Amino acid sequence: MNIESDFKPRGVNVSREESRFLKEKGLKWCPRCRTAKDLSIFVRKGAKRVMDYCGECRDTETILKAVFRTEKFKASVKLRLKLQGLSGFKPSGNRISIYEASILAELGCKWCPYCFKAVRFEQFRALKSERFSICKKCNPIRDAAYKAINNGKITKYNQSEERRASVKAYKNDPKNRVKRNLLKRNAYRTNPLIKFRLRLSEATRRLCNNKAGKDTLNIMGVNSVEHFISLMSVKTDNPNWFRDGYHLDHIWQFNWFSEFLLKNVENDHNLSLALPVIHGHKNLRPLSSTENCQRPKNDFLPLNLDDLPLYEPYLNSDIKQKIHCYFKSLSERPRSKNSK
Fold this sequence. Notes:
Blueprint: H1 3-6, H2 16-24, E1 27-30, E2 35-38, H3 55-88, H4 98-106, E3 109-112, E4 117-120, H5 138-159, H6 161-172, H7 174-190, H8 192-208, H9 214-220, H10 225-233, E5 247-250, H11 258-263, H12 268-278, E6 284-287, H13 289-294, H14 308-311, H15 317-331
Antiparallel strand pairs: 1-2, 3-4, 5-6
C-alpha cells in the first residue's frame, strides 16, 4: 500500500491520530488538494514553521489573490475614468502603474509624466523604444530646460577631443556608413526638402570642383567658379577659406522656406523663381565648420532689412512674423549719445 496516493481520512478532516500516523511516516495531509505529501513540501524557505498547505496549493492561492487584486484595481481605474474623464484622470501613485497604462492604451491614450496628463497616441513621437514617453508639446520644453541648466557642459563636451575622436570613430565604422547611406536614400525618396538640400549641396560641390554645368551656374547667379570664389572671399576675413574647407552657409536659412518648397514640389515655374533666390550667391557665405554647426535655428543677426522684400514671398508664416518682430525691435532701440 502506497500511503501518499492511497491514504484517505475516515471523516471530512484528518483526525489527530491520523495526523500523528502520517507524521511518523514523514508525511502530512493537505486539506486543499486532499492528498498526503512529504513533510518537506510544507516547510517554506527561510521559515522553520510547518505550513497548513503544501507548496503547490500555496502558489495557486497567491496567484488567485494577485489576480483578484489586479482585477479589482482595473475595475477601480475604469470607474475613475468614467467619473473623472481623460482630462481629469490621475494615477493612484506618483507614477502610473502597468495596469493603468494598459487601460489607457485600450482607449488609444498614453500617460505623459511631464505634463501629468493622459494624451492621445497621435501626440507622441513614433519611437522604437518607449522609455522616453513624453508628448510632442512637452519635448521642446524639457529640452530647453535641460539646455539652460547644462549649456556649459554640452559646449565643453562638443568642443573636446574625446567628442571629436568618438565622431570620427563612428563615421569610419563601415557598419555605420551603410546605415547612413540607407537613411539618406530613404530620406531622398520620401522627404522632398532633403531631396532639394542634397541636390543643392551636390551643385555647390560640383561648382567647387570646377565641374559645374549651366544649371548650377544659373541657380547661383555666377558666370564661373572664379567669379563665385571672388564673391565669397569678400564675405569672410580668411583669404584661405577654400583650402581650409569652410562650409557654405545660407544667410537666410534653408529651413525657413520649407512651406513654399513643399507646396511647389511639382511646380517647375515657381521653383525656377525661388531657387535662385534661396540658393543664390547673395544668400551664401563661407563659414567655418564649428560656427556653421553651432549656429541656432532662429539666428537673425546676419540678416539685412533691405533684403526682406526679396525673400519675404517664400518665407514660412511663423518665421516671417519673427523676422518682422526682430527688425521692429531693432528700430525701437534707443540710440546712444555718441551716434547723434
